[in-house]
C-alpha cells in the first residue's frame, strides 16, 4: 500500500490503513492516535503519517501486544531506545512461553481424557465430565 501525500479524511485514513472508521475512533479514545483539530463546519484531516501509525498498532497487536503495551512501544517509536523496546519484547516472549506451557498442559490433559473415553473403562461415568465435576 502506498501512502497519500495529502491530508486524509477519517474514511480515507481507515481505508488506507486497512481498518474501519470505528477502529480509528477507538484508537483515538485510547490515546494511540491523535485526534486532529476540526475546523468549524469542516472535517478533521489526518496527516498521511497516521496510516503508518495505524499499521504500527496493528502489527504490534498481531505480535500479541495489548493496546497498553502498544502505547508504551509508541513512546519508543523514535527507534533510539532499543534496550527498552527489547525488554518489552522479551517480556512478551516470556508471557507467550508461559501461555504455551499452559496450553500444552491442557492439551495433554484433554488428550488423556479423550483416550480414557475411547477405552470406555468407566461405563457409567464419562471421564471428561467426571474430571470437570470433581472438586478442585
Domain module count: 2
Name the structural class: mainly alpha
- Main pleated sheet: none
- The span between the termini is 53 Å
Instruction: Tell me the overall shape.
Output: elongated
**CATH topology tier name of the largest domain:** Multidrug-efflux Transporter Regulator, Chain: A, Domain 2
CATH architecture of the largest domain: Orthogonal Bundle
- The CATH first-level class of the largest domain comes to Mainly Alpha
State the helicity in percent bands: 55-70%
Secondary-structure element sequence?
HHHHHH
Sheet-strand content, in percent, reads: under 5%
Provide a count of the helices. 6
Q: What is the number of beta strands?
A: 0
| Arithmetic mean pLDDT | 90
Q: Spans with pLDDT under 50 lasting ≥5 residues?
A: none
Structure in words:
- The chain has 136 residues and is an all-alpha fold.
- The protein has two domains: 75 residues, Orthogonal Bundle (Multidrug-efflux Transporter Regulator, Chain: A, Domain 2), CATH 1.10.1660.10; 55 residues.
- Helices cover 62% and strands 0% of the residues.
- The chain contains six helices and no strands.
- Helix 1 crosses helix 3.
- The protein is elongated and about 75 Å long.
Please tag this protein with its features.
single chain, 136 residues, mainly alpha, Multidrug-efflux Transporter Regulator, Chain: A, Domain 2, 2 domains
Amino acid at each position: 500500500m502506498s501512502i497519500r501525500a495529502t491530508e486524509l479524511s477519517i474514511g480515507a485514513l481507515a481505508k488506507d490503513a486497512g481498518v474501519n472508521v470505528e477502529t480509528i475512533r477507538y484508537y483515538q479514545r485510547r490515546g494511540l492516535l491523535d485526534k486532529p483539530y476540526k475546523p468549524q463546519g469542516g472535517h478533521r484531516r489526518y496527516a498521511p503519517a497516521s496510516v503508518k501509525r495505524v499499521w504500527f498498532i496493528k502489527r504490534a497487536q498481531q505480535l500479541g501486544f495489548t493496546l497498553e503495551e502498544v502505547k508504551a512501544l509508541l513512546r519508543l517509536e523514535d527507534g533510539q531506545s532499543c534496550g527498552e523496546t527489547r525488554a518489552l519484547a522479551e517480556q512478551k516472549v516470556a508471557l507467550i512461553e508461559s501461555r504455551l506451557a499452559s496450553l500444552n498442559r491442557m492439551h495433554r490433559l484433554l488428550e488423556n481424557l479423550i483416550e480414557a473415553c475411547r477405552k470406555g473403562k468407566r461405563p457409567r461415568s464419562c471421564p471428561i465430565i467426571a474430571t470437570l465435576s470433581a472438586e478442585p
